[in-house]
Each structure stands twice: as structure tokens, then as C-alpha cells.
Design brief:
- 15% of the residues lie in helices and 22% in strands.
- It is of the alpha+beta class.
- The chain has a single domain (3-94), classed as Ubiquitin-like (UB roll).
- The radius of gyration is 13 Å and the shape is globular.
């Protein structure tokens, strides 16, 4: 099972193939935002990788990061846990002023992933 470490929290084992946004929230118990429900439409689930950044990304992730001008971060809703990772959760529910973290993300990546190499 892959190990996930969210900076400032304990390391947890997560089921292989689980969406990173869900692993952060459900397994590591970190209050990560996902305002669009994990559909690659916003950037509230973004994380910075300290170690273990995946080499691939979805076309949807690339498009939203480019459109919003986000550099140095990834969308946790567009990543699956396939290996050990260490991340920093950038957008947290606590202190956000939002009424909730957002709709629950589906168990699988949405929209259906089209994989490309990250640049």
C-alpha cells in the first residue's frame, strides 16, 4: 500500500488507486477543500509535492492550472495514489470562510482522465 504524508500530519497507508483528494481527507484526516467536487474546475484541492510527484497529469488538470495561472502546485482531485507521496495541503477548510469543503468527490477521477506527461 502506498504511504501518504501530509506535511504536519502523520504518515498513513492508503489503498492503491485511491484519489489523492480522498486520501488526504479520509485517511490522513486533513480538511482539504474541494469546492467543485473534484471535477478539475477549480483549484481549491491543490497541493505542493515535497516528494513523489507523479510524472503524469490529466489534460483537465493541465488546462485548469494553466487557465488559473497556478505554478508549482497540482490538483489532488486529478491524482491517484500509486506510490509513496509527501505533500503540503495548500487550501484547507479551516479558516477558509466557506460553509463546507465542497461536494464529496467521486471515487474515480472526473472527468475521465486523459493522461499526459507533466512539464
Amino acid at each position: 500500500m502506498p504511504k501518504l504524508t501530509v506535511e504536519g500530519f502523520r504518515t498513513v497507508e492508503v489503498p492503491a488507486g485511491k484519489r489523492l483528494v480522498l486520501a488526504i481527507e479520509q485517511d490522513a484526516h486533513v480538511d482539504v477543500l474541494h469546492a467543485c467536487g473534484g471535477n478539475a474546475r477549480c483549484t481549491t484541492c491543490r497541493v505542493e509535492f515535497i516528494a513523489g510527484e507523479p510524472e503524469k497529469m490529466t489534460v483537465a488538470e493541465k488546462q485548469v492550472l494553466t487557465a488559473k495561472g497556478v505554478i508549482g502546485a497540482r490538483l489532488s482531485c486529478q491524482i491517484t495514489c500509486t506510490h509513496d507521496m509527501v505533500v503540503r495541503a495548500i487550501s484547507r477548510f479551516g479558516g477558509s470562510g466557506r460553509p463546507d469543503p465542497g461536494p464529496p468527490p467521486a471515487p474515480t477521477i472526473t472527468p475521465p482522465p486523459e493522461w499526459i506527461d507533466r512539464e
